[in-house]
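R.M. (postdoc): so does anyone remember the format we settled on? I'll just put the structure tokens first.
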């Protein structure tokens, strides 16, 4: 999925004056590109990812998504401005095209690893046999085939984050967003998790954007950007 950001701004009202978080961001991200975003806490990185993930809307400016489709042997493209979609259509677009991996894994504690991975399908109604097979395949892909019945409390931090990655991939998204996915992990585990994200993106052709504080990990991405005071620089 290709992304185009045009003069993107985000601010929040306060009793005194608006709190400006993002200022005039213009950026093009090609389909299949891997992009790392560095920057100190409070610089606007997570806000930008939330907007790209359609969890928040910009105050001004535009974000558009362009995806390639194929029907009856004919290849075409669709251009979408999520701000113009209804709430129902926006939720459907997000579920089909965007996967999220957060610093905190957000696994449901009462569900097994396999059940947590199936959640994106269950949210759409029910999971089929093919969905279960895909979830098992994803567990194997992240190296946890023997942990499918384990609850999150029975998994290590790195294992829980691997389950979260598998869950983000369940609906075969074309855009994968990772917000400090290694922030709660030790350096060795953090390296393996980030490499897993890059490997998966490379295999599936997904566009990957990841926020990280680690310049060494960021250096493995196609492009590294830095956020400073709401401004994105290369």
């Amino acid at each position: 999925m290709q992304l185009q950001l045009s003069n993107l701004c985000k601010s929040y009202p306060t009793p005194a004056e608006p709190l400006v978080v993002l200022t005039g961001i213009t950026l093009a991200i090609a389909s299949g590109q891997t992009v790392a975003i560095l920057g100190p806490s409070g610089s606007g990185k997570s806000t930008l990812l939330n907007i790209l993930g359609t969890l928040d809307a910009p105050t001004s400016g535009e974000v558009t998504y362009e995806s390639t489709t194929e029907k009856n042997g004919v290849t075409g493209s669709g251009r979408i401005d999520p701000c113009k979609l209804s709430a129902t259509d926006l939720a459907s677009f997000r579920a089909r095209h965007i996967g999220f991996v957060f610093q905190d894994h957000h696994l449901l504690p009462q569900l097994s690893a396999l059940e947590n991975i199936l959640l994106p399908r269950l949210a759409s109604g029910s999971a089929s046999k093919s969905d279960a097979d895909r979830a098992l395949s994803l567990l194997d892909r992240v190296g946890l085939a023997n942990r499918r019945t384990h609850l999150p409390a029975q998994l290590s931090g790195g294992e829980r984050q691997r389950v979260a990655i598998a869950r983000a991939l369940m609906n075969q998204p074309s855009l994968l967003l990772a917000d400090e996915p290694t922030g709660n992990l030790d350096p060795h585990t953090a390296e393996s998790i980030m490499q897993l994200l890059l490997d998966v993106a490379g295999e599936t052709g997904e566009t990957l954007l990841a926020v990280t504080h680690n310049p060494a990990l960021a250096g493995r991405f196609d492009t590294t950007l830095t956020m400073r005071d709401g401004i994105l620089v290369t």
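R.M.: ...and that's the designed sequence above, right after the tokens. Also worth knowing: The chain has one domain: 2-233. Residues 12 and 18 are 5 Å apart (CA to CA).
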